[in-house]
UniProtKB/TrEMBL annotation:
InterPro entries according to UniProt: BMT5-like
Domain 25S rRNA (uridine-N(3))-methyltransferase BMT5-like stretches: 62-243
Compositionally biased region (Acidic residues): 18-36
GO cellular component, one term: cytoplasm
Organism: Camellia sinensis (Tea plant)
Any one GO biological process: rRNA base methylation
The protein's name: 25S rRNA (uridine-N(3))-methyltransferase BMT5-like domain-containing protein
Cited Pfam families: BMT5-like (PF10354)
Region (Disordered) residue spans: 1-43
Gene Ontology molecular functions: rRNA (uridine-N3-)-methyltransferase activity
Length: 267
């Protein structure tokens, strides 16, 4: 993937200008009635724009906190390209194979489709990342933020009854998750394109997720809720939500009702 002088990605292989500007569009064999494929004129040429849910092949998309990279790959397949995608995980590259059955395979496929995969990226520090700091994105996505497995000794509460200790552990976990989403939002804001850029966070409904106060936190950081919509896994073919930590990182976790919160820069 080449870098433009301003530090942005080239879309040379995504944008396919047509030979003739004034041809009859109805003759185009590539044109489709599908809502998901549109032909957009730009300058002297046209390009196909493919959509999946809230995401478009014309967006520069940054994915954060990926598990086995199946969400990124689902987008890439819908776009028939991953050239507009930068996909990141906290995991080191060498751990992907250990943690996930399809991790390295999905990464390879993403890279073959032109995507950029970066491992070892901490969402709470990513605005300082040597490469990401030079980029701006239209969509920054973190699905199901959750801190890594916290070793029991970190959460050991030495005094009190077992139930009290468990409650204290839950409170500590919740605090760490709040810090994670706050750190993510703060960093994502820096990397967000000003015009109509959106940060998307998806989490489960109910306790303890609703206690994260995501919207309030975002507002304090200078982000405004644009909309919140139900998240439906089946709309992303191939996506497998992963625990990502503990003794079974490759296992899915039950989803139930989930919401995607879309934030924009506050006016
Ligand atoms: C519940 S899993 C969800 C994984 C994936 N997004 C999915 O939908 O399958 C939570 C993920 O957050 C990641 N994570 C935890 N702390 C992080 C951090 N500081 N920066 C980036 N990712 C983090 C974990 O590595 C894990 O993959």
């Amino acid at each position: 993937m080449g870098l433009a002088p301003e530090g942005e990605f080239y879309y040379d292989k995504v944008i396919k200008p047509e030979e003739e500007e004034d041809d009859d569009e109805s003759d185009s064999s590539e044109e489709s009635d599908s809502e998901e494929l549109m032909m957009h004129g730009k300058g002297n040429g046209k390009r196909e724009i493919r959509m999946i849910e809230h995401y478009s092949s014309s967006h520069r998309i940054l994915l954060v906190g990926e598990g086995d990279f199946s969400f990124s790959l689902s987008l890439a397949k819908a776009f028939s390209s991953a050239r507009n995608i930068v996909s990141t995980s906290l995991d080191a590259h060498k751990d992907l194979e250990k943690k996930y059955n399809k991790g390295t395979w999905n990464v390879r496929e993403l890279e073959e489709m032109g995507g950029l995969v970066l491992c070892g990226v901490d969402a709470t520090k990513m605005s300082q990342h040597f490469f990401l700091s030079t980029q701006r994105f239209d969509r920054i996505i973190y699905n199901f933020p959750h801190v890594e497995y916290i070793e029991r000794r970190c959460l050991r509460i030495s005094k009190g009854r077992e139930e009290d200790q468990e409650t204290k552990r839950m409170i500590t976990k919740s605090k760490l998750n709040k810090q994670l989403v706050k750190g993510f939002l703060t960093n994502a804001k820096v990397l967000l394109r000003k015009e109509e850029g959106e940060i998307h966070v998806t989490h489960k409904e109910g306790d303890p997720y609703n206690r994260w106060d995501l919207v309030k936190k975002a507002e304090k950081i200078g982000l405004a809720l644009h909309e919140s919509v139900p998240f439906c896994k089946h709309k992303y073919p191939g996506y497998d939500n992963k625990r990502g930590c503990g003794s079974h990182p490759d296992d899915p976790f039950p989803l139930g009702d989930c919401t995607t919160f879309k934030f924009r820069l506050a006016p």
